[in-house]
Write a structure and sequence with these properties.
Elements (H helix, E strand, L loop, with lengths): L1 H12 L2 H8 L11 E7 L4 H16 L4 E8 L4 H12 L5 E10 L1 H7 L4 E3 L4 E3 L5 E2 L5 E2 L3 H22 L3 H6 L7 E3 L2 E4 L6 E3 H4 L12 E4 L3 H7 L7 E3 L4 H11 L1 H17 L5 H19 L5 H19 L6 H17 L13 H28 L4 H6 L24 E4 L6 E6 L2 E7 L9 E8 L2 E6 L2
Parallel strand pairs: 1-2, 1-12, 2-3, 3-4, 3-5, 4-11, 15-17
Antiparallel strand pairs: 5-10, 6-7, 8-9, 13-14, 13-16, 14-15, 16-17
């Protein structure tokens, strides 16, 4: 009897399983739902991640029919690409890619995470091999162990992105591992020793499954043709507008070392010259722009600014209130450096509290460039600034001399040998009267009572030394 009941339950629930699976698919968009277009152009970095997240959130809120990334990029940082891939995978709105011209490196990884890739005539996708950039912008050689570690991590990321979107993971991995060979039957698509880079025509050829393309879902001249292929031609297009603030933030994020160098040099010149002047104001503006740009880019928070302010406060206390240079000044410098590195480091919501080396090495590299540049700039300023027209405005060029009548204190040498009476006890400082003149004096160390007779034995400007009169 128990088996019969279980069998009946199984038969009753079996027809509901396909319906449940079908309900997991995204619902058909409303006729008036907009198609969001997000431009992905130039370098891929933290500020672009902020823009894409904003576009994905806005499309979700507006129940958009689809999101299309219009792409033309040489690549960018792996960290930003990884975060963008995760954001796309978590989006309830289907995301597609239309490659206008290039999708290299990080751009290829992002494109492979979308449901379908469309390419314009002459567009190219591929070559996602990780490279290490030097502090001065060139490509830096990696050791064999570090290269394999980086390649392995990127290969896993690009395979996972391709698998989640239904693309061929072997095609994706060939963009990272040159030692692999990509074949379809007897036809070698990309031989071993070469990284895979596909044109629009090559990407649209049949893949391993003859019913599916190798990578591109089709070649189209513009976004309207792509929408027609997706069955969304009647839906309105809403292009995400990248604001001026976001554009400026992207420039600031990429120019972080320059802003830090200018900020540090401005403060250095201000410390070397009296008062508060233009260099100090410009230095503060540069550091303020640094924090503002990274805040807009979604990297820096208020805690970084507060740590920086605490570091500056400790440094000022060390300079103006505590003699010498000790632990307070060192702690202030460490807090300033910590805040600047923290402002350039990505923190994933819900991720680890402490960032790993992959998140820290680029900010630390930028900080190293800033410190080196500040030191070199300070040496050059110390050598050439005093002789320049700007240096003459910051420093006093005219000198004064005693021969011209300029003195820091009156000449009291004529008082030596004169005698007087102590008006107050000398302990050892006090007041005496010489003739009708009252003088502030000190003894050589003796304590003398009031009304004692004294004689002036030294007089150097305002410093007058007396001794008991003989």
């Amino acid at each position: 009897m128990k088996r019969l009941i279980l069998l009946l339950l199984a038969l009753l629930t079996a027809p509901a399983l396909p319906a449940a699976a079908a309900s997991a698919d995204p619902p058909r968009p409303a006729p008036g739902a907009a198609v969001y277009v997000i431009p992905v152009r130039s370098q891929i970095e933290g500020a672009l991640l902020y823009v894409i997240r904003r576009g994905l959130a806005e499309a979700k809120q507006q129940n958009a029919a689809a999101i299309i990334l219009i792409m033309d990029t040489p690549g960018g940082t792996l960290n930003s690409a990884s975060d963008i891939v995760r954001s796309i995978q978590a989006s309830p709105v289907p995301v597609y890619t239309f490659i206008e011209k290039d999708a290299f490196s990080a751009g290829a990884i992002i494109a492979l995470s979308t449901r379908a890739i469309y390419m314009a005539p002459g567009a190219v996708i591929g070559d996602a091999l990780p490279i290490l950039m030097s502090p001065f912008g060139g490509v830096q050689d990696m050791s064999e162990g570090l290269e394999e570690k980086s390649v392995s991590a990127v290969a896993a990321l690009i395979r996972a992105a391709a698998q989640s979107a239904g693309h061929d993971p072997e095609v994706a991995e060939k963009m990272v591992r040159r030692e692999n060979e990509l074949k379809i039957g007897d036809d070698v698509i990309s031989p071993a020793g070469q990284l895979l880079t596909l044109t629009a025509e090559e990407a649209a050829r049949p893949g391993r499954n003859p019913d599916r393309p190798l990578l591109s879902a089709g070649t189209h001249s513009d976004i309207h043709s792509v929408l027609k292929a997706l069955g969304l031609a009647k839906h309105p297009i809403r292009e995400l507008e990248i604001t001026t603030v976001e554009r400026v933030a992207r420039v600031i994020a990429s120019a972080a070392p320059i802003l830090m160098i200018l900020g540090f040099l401005g403060i250095y010149i201000e410390i070397k010259t009296p008062g508060i002047g233009l260099p100090g104001i410009l230095g503060a503006i540069c550091l303020g722009l640094f924090f503002w740009g990274h805040h807009i880019a979604g990297l820096a928070g208020m805690e970084d600014l507060l740590i920086f302010a605490a570091g500056v406060l400790l440094l000022l206390v060390e300079i103006f209130l505590i003699p010498g240079f000790g632990i307070t000044g060192v702690l202030g410098i460490l807090l300033i450096l910590f805040s600047l590195v923290g402002a350039m480091t990505r923190m994933i919501p819900g991720g680890p509290v402490l960032p790993g080396w992959t998140d820290l090495h680029i900010p630390i590299l930028k900080m190293g460039v800033a410190i080196f540049g500040t030191g070199a700039g300070a040496l050059l300023l110390g050598r050439f600034l005093p002789r320049s027209a700007l240096g003459s405005r910051l420093t006093l060029a005219a000198a004064t001399s005693a021969a011209e009548g300029y003195t820091a204190a009156p000449d009291t040498s004529a008082l030596v040998g004169q005698t007087g009476v102590a008006l107050t006890p000398l302990r050892p400082a006090g007041v005496i009267r010489v003739g009708a003149e009252r003088l502030d004096v000190v003894t050589a160390g003796q304590f003398l009572d009031a009304d004692a007779s004294v004689q002036i034995i030294e007089a150097h400007g305002n410093r007058i030394v007396v001794a008991p009169a003989p």
